[in-house]
Amino acid sequence: MIYTGGTIGMRPGHRGLEPGHDFEQRARVQLDRLPAERRAALPRFHCLAYRDPIDSSNTRPEHWARIAHDVLAHQHEYDGFVILHGTDTLAWTAASLSWQLAGLNKPIIVSGAQQPLEVESGDALANLEQALRFAACPGLAEVAVAFGGRLLRGDAARKWDTHAHQGFASPNANWLGEWLDHAPVLHVTRSRPPEGVCRPMPWPLEAPPRVARLALWPGIDSDMMARLLTPELQGLVLEVWGSGNVPEDPALLALLSTATRRGCLIVAISQCPHGSLAMTSYATGHALRTAGVIDGGAMTPEAVFTRLSHLLSLGLSPQQCRHHLVP
Ligand code: ASN
């Protein structure tokens, strides 16, 4: 178990909740409150508690690399891993780990909580128990998010509710499993086959690639977009309308086209949380294809952003990245 911070381990401070320490001891005190038979069903675990736990709103790509590095450093010692994380950017970390650790073939369960461990009737103890039990499921061989009784694909999960115990959803992917009668149940017993380029590999820390995210709004013009589409930009997650539409503005489309021609990878996904792109349905969508924009299908913004970053950090050419972008 790796504790990185987040509300699950927070304590009240002067300005509000702050990342707390002594996590392992506090977690074991809580787990001891479970009924004897559920305690007995927990796997044995060791805990690596980061000495600098953070609120996950402070997460940077370096943190994703650090977690992947720590998992890989201990991969032969454990049958599974639990990563405890703040919920605000948990979906980004889960997506990043699903690329960085593709092919590890062990359960890597990312979890956290909406309330701290010590809150009576909070969700922390339940999520901790569920994460540990799912991490001990031999049939699971990928990164997944265990939260509020659901097990979601690591690259499809999204934070869905600011407060509810069921704080995560995967609107475009079926659950991998769920918690039923105090036991983990897997709906999919085999993970995806490992992908060619993605062998387990921590992100190179030195220079994270320059990737940005842009959601269109009515009235966006090419001047505004040009500020983001600088020559240094290597990748862009472009969140467009509906099934893949953009404004019919020749200057805006020319800007996208110039960027893709110089090798910037632009991936379009929908601003609708549910459903996939179909860039050929409308004339306004067809223009995106002509501009060299890649169809991101039903991927989440977190998944596209981290996948782009991962592929670019491997030093692959834009053509190779393009080939591997949409699984
Ligand atoms: N701000 C917290 C975090 O992301 C929220 C949480 O964990 N529930 O670290």
TrEMBL record:
Q: In what residue span(s) does the L-asparaginase N-terminal domain sit?
A: 2-181
Recorded hits in PROSITE patterns, A to Z, give: ASN_GLN_ASE_2, ASN_GLN_ASE_3
Q: Which CDD domains match?
A: L-asparaginase_I
Q: Which Pfam families does this entry report, sorted A to Z? A: Asparaginase, Asparaginase_C
Residues of the region (Disordered) are: 1-20
- Entry binding sites for substrate: S56, T87, D88
Could you tell me the superkingdom of the organism this chain comes from?
A: Bacteria
Which residues constitute the catalytic centre? T7 (o-isoaspartyl threonine intermediate), T87
Sample GO molecular function, one term: asparaginase activity
Q: Where is the Asparaginase/glutaminase C-terminal domain?
A: 210-323
Q: Which SMART domains match?
A: Asparaginase
Protein's recorded name:
L-asparaginase
